[in-house]
Amino acid sequence: MFKHLIVGIDFPFEEDTFIEEIATLQPLIGLEELTLAHVTLNPNEIPEIQAELDKHASVIKGRLGLKAADAQALSGLPTEELNRLTSRKDAQGIALLFHHHSKTYEFFLGSVALDMARSTRHPLFFLNQQPDPSSGALMLASDGSLAAKAAEKLFAQLKPLAKKAMIINVPSDKDEPEHQQAVQKLKATFSEDAAVEILSGEGDPAKAIVQASNSKKADLLILGKRGQNPLKQLMFGSTAEQICRQIHRPVLIVPPELGD
User: Can you give the residue ranges of the UspA domain (predicted)?
Assistant: First the structure.
């Protein structure tokens, strides 16, 4: 469950759009509290930014009916400060606004967002504006690998909150017996659950997953990511990064540490 999220925002902040996006996820993840955060490189800007964030937090709390909403203006490097704030607040995850129409989209994707995805040990939401009305649908993309175990575990926890729950499995090019056994175990774990629909995809994994999430109108797509060492971090830059570049739906990246 994600009762408390840290939301990293930039300016200009599209308050109405954000409220619309987070309202879709609110019942699906059990959200009760959020903290708006903005990180600046100039400490002198903090008082002005804090005042602006406080105004937004007050409005958002009322419109979403949250138990609590506060704000924090920070100075430093975004990735480090957002991770520290999440730990300090004992929040369950971090959310970043992720709008494809933004002029800074490519820059943001290549810097803050990917840095966060590669380094954070906290679940990371990429918020996208939904192209469809909320369906209450939750989708997990998994290849049955060890790296996906934490995502599978979180999917099982959130599943009772969803109106529909689905798993999309796209086989990789690997033919090792261990990989095939992992895929079969994944299917066996959830296939007996009548509330979970098992889907299979073919071809390019990123394209197949994006297409499935669109056709099923998923409100949230859950992905696992690789480990923390530099070589494994680069693995995020393949399938998961391609999905984030192509998709126009909220995505949740789950680090493997949550499965420990």
Answer: 176-255
